[in-house]
Amino acid sequence: MMGEGCWTEAMLQYGCASEICLCLGERETCCMVKLGSLLLARHHGRIVNSWALCHPSCHMGSKSAMSPALSHPADTQQQGILDELKMPFSHAAIGNFFQERPSLGNQFLEDALLQSYIKRHLPPQMVSEVSQDYIRFAQRLVEEIDSLGRDCELNLPRLQQYDAWGRRVDQIITCSAWKKMKEVSAEEGLVAEAYERRYSSWSRLIQVIKIYLYSPSAGLFTCPLAMTDGAAKVIESLGVPEPLQNAYNHLTSRNPSSFWTSGQWMTERRGGSDVAVGTETIAHRQEDGTYRLHGYKWFTSATDSDMSLTLGRVVDNHGNTVVGTKGLSLFYLEVRDAEGNLNGIEVQRLKEKLGTRQVPTAELLLDGVKALQISPEGRGVASISNMLTITRIHNTISAVAGMRRIINLARDYAAKRFVFGKLIKEHPLHIQTMARMEVEARGAFLFLMEISRLLGLEETNMATQQDQHLLRLLTPVAKLYTGKQALAVISEGLECFGGQGYMEDTGLPAMLRDAQVLTIWEGTTNILSLDVLRSVIKSNGKVLSAFFSTAQEKLDRASCVPSLSQAAKHTMKALNKLMAFTQEAGQLGGNYMELAARDFAYSLAKIYIGTLLLDHAAWEGASATDIYSAQRWSDQDLCPVDKAKASGCYDSESMSLDRQLVYDNSPLLKGKL
Ligand SMILES: Cc1cc2nc3c(=O)[nH]c(=O)nc-3n(C[C@H](O)[C@H](O)[C@H](O)COP(=O)(O)OP(=O)(O)OC[C@H]3O[C@@H](n4cnc5c(N)ncnc54)[C@H](O)[C@@H]3O)c2cc1C
């Protein structure tokens, strides 16, 4: 057991005793030391915890951890402290130190990279106009929207299947905050902005930035917005045909009373990834040219939406359907009729989810749903792909925004939490941890800006072939990479709050639970990695040529800046390795590339983000932190596919060895290896 001397030593070691001596007189210090010893005797070896037990008195009188004990030496306070030391917690049942909570600041003004990005790329007049809107909106987030988002988390949607008299009603009941989010979305033009094209090719990027600010405060209303945006895009790409004009107007409205949201019903019991085989929904043509749909949709999010796009197989005159992708057509439907009755839909149940609970996600029986076929027969998957581009970009927005938000909250907290004698922002290791998170978030942010910029060009017919190829390649890469990184960064972010990061009522754990979906819906990491390969094959390698030449250009520019030349060199080396890999792997056949797909996609992501960070840092208006983050990014292995290839990870033996490893000792594969 430690004696008094050791206890004092321990306190000194933790940088606390000196602080006590400053805030208390010698006699009191002595009393404190004695108390410490007593506590220590009860809590063998748990010096820090014992200290924490008596520590409140050290901070007593200070309003927050921001103003440590140095500032309250008054006699009366000292007497109060002494009284409490004698009988800790006797008259204050729970003690009187309360940690100041992290607070949300203006997320636009706090985002240095966002501000410098728009300053660099947008015309000055546009910068000042949109900045004013962003500042106002970010303030609205602090004052109004963020707490609505929390309300959505606390007041979850529920399904009322029957009314009091036994009639089937299938009402999805959502809270008032969720409904208010719909109004906010319309008022703020969160979908409309992209389609009004007020800012020409920048309209898309300007919309994306606004959703990026909104997302972590939105109570997951960004989920219906993603699908609404996707549906508007599909309808627009079909040339807004007359029967869909009304729906398009609703989806892109700024008027809360006429704004509609849309669902996207693809996943069925047999598959969300494999919709070609998984889709069992059938469509019977009616005399008036409409269809009646029958099927079972296994995951339908934001099922309180006004309309949906869905896939089904048209039944021919002989009662047959075509199997596979070629049998799938795209349909438009309204969820309720003019009287508010469900359109041949039964809501079987709401899903019990890990996160995103604010969003009603349901299983639906389609029992004669009236629908319009909106794609040529058998072109359903091709037609809905426009929706997927948009929803994958929205997924990327949520991922990047989640990283940014947790970092901003954690850095605020680090300036309020006082441990081991100083604020945690004064502990270099903590700041290094946050700096690493920051580099990830910055890289992901620039990636998001890049695909939004490319999409904006495409939507205004200003994209070159190269831009279009890049957009096709990078959209799944950005979605898969940022989804995974968001989980890692947000998890690290929770740790930055210590135990409080794990407490539900701080609102922080929900960020991690919600982030998990980012890697699953709209395509899992593997499915998207295979989609990347598909884009390479379908374009005869043109998407890769666009990638290599764009990356090369950016690196050439950055290598002329002395502070960036080393990082540019390192990134160029990785790019060359990736080039060599693609040339070699092209000869090695399908299985090889399938095994390499995930590492390949990661290599594309890491290298491209590296070039974006370098490119931004090479701009004459770049800051020292822009340069530093580009340097830090390039420290890592940017081409994991090369390393894994060298160690034989994609060789044919690996396939069998991987299987043996996974099913080691399992009866599932006995005799089959
Ligand atoms: C909260 C939530 C909301 C959702 N909302 C909607 C919605 O609104 N509309 C909608 O249509 N869907 C929705 N989904 C469904 C979602 O899009 C699918 O779950 C997802 O696409 C995965 O499909 P699956 O569940 O069939 O998984 P599976 O396809 O069965 O995949 C299982 C695993 O196998 C892997 N895998 C599959 N095929 C391959 C392959 N060829 N190579 C390597 N690995 C492979 C996958 O990566 C995954 O890890 C939602 C899902 C969630 C969780």
TrEMBL record:
The keyword DNA repair does not apply. Residues 264-369 form the Acyl-CoA oxidase/dehydrogenase middle domain. Coiled coil: none annotated. SUPFAM superfamilies: Acyl-CoA dehydrogenase C-terminal domain-like, Acyl-CoA dehydrogenase NM domain-like. GO terms for molecular function: acyl-CoA dehydrogenase activity. Keywords: FAD, Flavoprotein, Oxidoreductase. InterPro entries: ACDH-11_C, Acyl-CoA_dehydrogenase-like, Acyl-CoA_Oxase/DH_mid-dom, AcylCo_DH-like_C, AcylCo_DH/oxidase_C, AcylCoA_DH/oxidase_NM_dom_sf, AidB_N. It comes from the Eukaryota. Residues 378-536 form the Acyl-CoA dehydrogenase/oxidase C-terminal domain. It holds the Pfam family ACDH-11_C. Belongs to the acyl-CoA dehydrogenase family. PANTHER family: ACD11 DEHYDROGENASE, ACYL-COA DEHYDROGENASE. This is Uncharacterized protein LOC446287 isoform X1. The lineage of its organism: Eukaryota, Metazoa, Chordata, Craniata, Vertebrata.
